[in-house]
Each structure stands twice: as C-alpha cells, then as structure tokens.
Design goal:
Length: about 325
C-alpha cells in the first residue's frame, strides 16, 4: 500500500523528524504550498468578451457604441468590433460558465445579446434604432413621420414639476372653447403616473407660460399603454386663437386627489390641436420650484416622445 501524504507529513519530512525549532532554522527547506481550491471557477480560458455591434436592419457595423458589463467598458471600432476586458480585481465575481446578457440602451440605439458560456466565441450584438412613428393625423409632414428621440427614459420629476407644450394652429383665427384633452401613455408617451392638467396663456415666442386659464383641478392617469381622452367641456375655458400652453404637472401617488374618468373609444368631433410638429419649432418649457419657468433647448425637448403625445379638441364659441 502506498503511503498517504498529508501537509503534516510534508512538514515532518522538511524538518527531518527533529523538533519544530530546529526545523525552522534549517536553510533551504521547501515549504508546503496549498493547492488552489476547486470550489472557485477557473478563469484560464479568457477574461474578456468580444464581438461585433451591427445595425439590426442594415446589418452594417456601428462605430463608437459604448458597451459595458460589470465594470468593464469599451466602445466599438469603425468595423463594429469590440472587446470587453474584465478588471483583474473583479474577475472572481464573474461566472464565465453561466450565460449572461449584454445590453445596450442609448437614445438612438438599443439591443441585447447573450454572452455564451464559451467566451472565446465572438458574439453579434444587433441594435435597433429608437424610432417613434405616429398615426397619420394632425399636420405631420413626411419627413416628420419618424424621428430619433433624444430621450428614451420617461420624464420623472419632483412633485409640482411641470412641462408646458406650446399649441398653435395657423388655421384657427378665432378663440375656441376647450372640449377635451388627449394624451398618450406608455413607451412613446408619458409615464403611467398621475398628472394635473394646466392651461396657460401664450404671450410670445420667447415668453414663458402666462396666465393660468384652467383654475379647476383635473388630474389624469393612465394604467396601460394607450391613448386617453378626458372631457373638460364643463370647465368652460376659452382658448385664444394665437395659441396657448398645455402643461402637465407631475404628482406622486400618495397625493390625495380624484382622477378624472377618461372616455373609452371617444372619437373627436371638432378640430384637434397639437404642438408644432417641426422639430425646430417646438417651444417647450419646464417649471420647477425655486427656478420657475425655463425654456428647454430644442435638442432636449424629447420630441417627438412628448410633444406628439398631447392633443386638445376645441369647438366654436357659441
């Protein structure tokens, strides 16, 4: 029977069977080195993930796309190639033997791919452009039928934060009475949060929202991804022909309020006014406590996510 060697046996051999103190004084004695534990994953194959970032439709490479995962980050090259090199200090936290997801969420592109267990294989990360398309109503021009939205995350603000959208229509020459307000909830519109409807007078292209035209409280909230219409004819608001601001005031779910009931399947019977559709013509303002009204630059208005998601139905003044 062969002898079973243990750490203690190795120590005794090193010390020649003598006392511990004598063994410690021996020069050149080989120390016992413990073996690596088999309970930890082995990182010998690779500490990186590589592949190509492509447009999911055209299949062309996309350059300059930031790719990140668990502390590792890089950008795709001109040919779409990327390589994520994991930081050595964090390699023990990566499980290369399990399938993980690699995702890209950008204002212009979004997509995801799975990292295979064998990270020596290069992956393909297809990305789709974030395009928002609208129904053929209002004053849409063909060039405005699809735009890349500069904002993909929903608008969330502090209570009392407001977004005011200028609504004008050159075909309206006389004041009109407010009949109903429609807005879109979901991916292409507002978040599923309660908003208070506000209406303000328009005093000029460079002026912030003016006098409050709607003094009663109307709170709206959508539960699903669809379009909601609310009857506001009882408010008896006269909207000026020169234009006005429709604003939504952000509220929190804990506020005590009654939400207005939307009209299911309602079809407008009068003119439906919307914000200007040309991107350069948008006039969006934001209100925050302590700062007041501030003009949002055209490139940051999140058009057409929000501006295209509101509409006001009017009727002639009788």
């Amino acid at each position: 029977m062969s002898a079973v060697h243990s750490p203690l046996t190795s120590l005794l051999r090193c010390f020649g069977g003598g006392g511990l103190l004598a063994g410690l004084l021996l020069a050149g004695c080989a120390r016992y080195t413990p073996q690596a534990s088999t309970n930890f994953p082995s990182f010998s194959p690779a500490h990186s993930v590589s592949g190509y970032v492509l447009d999911a439709v055209s299949k062309q490479p996309l350059a300059g796309i930031p790719v990140a995962r668990n502390g590792a980050q890089t950008s795709s090259a001109t040919d779409g190639f990327f390589q994520l090199n994991y930081p050595a200090a964090k390699q023990e936290t990566y499980l290369f033997d399990k399938e993980e997801e690699l995702a890209v969420e950008l204002p212009a592109y979004a997509g995801r791919a799975y990292i295979p267990a064998d990270t020596t294989q290069r992956i393909t990360l297809p990305l789709l452009r974030n395009l928002y398309r609208f129904p053929p109503d209002g004053n849409l021009r063909p060039a405005d039928s699809a735009h890349v939205s500069p904002c993909t995350a929903p608008w969330l603000g502090w209570p009392s934060t407001q977004r005011a959208f200028l609504i004008q229509d050159s075909s309206i020459h006389q004041p009109r009475r407010l009949r109903a307000i429609t807005f879109r909830i979901g991916e292409n519109g507002f978040d599923r949060e309660p908003f208070r409807i506000r209406l303000y007078r328009y005093n000029g292209p460079e002026q912030p929202p003016g006098e409050d035209l709607l003094t009663e409280n109307y709170v709206v909230s959508g539960a699903t991804k669809e379009t909601y219409t609310y009857d506001l004819s009882n408010a008896n608001v006269i909207l000026p022909a020169s234009g006005f601001f429709l604003a939504l005031e952000y509220m929190i779910g804990g506020d005590k309020f009654y939400t207005s009931i939307h009209m299911v399947g309602y079809v407008p019977v009068g003119p439906l006014l919307r914000p200007p559709y040309a991107f350069a013509d948008t006039r969006t303002w934001v209100y925050t406590i302590g700062k007041g009204w501030q003009r949002i630059p055209a490139a940051q208005t999140c058009w057409p996510r929000y501006e295209s998601s509101v509409g006001v139905e009017v009727e002639p003044v009788r």
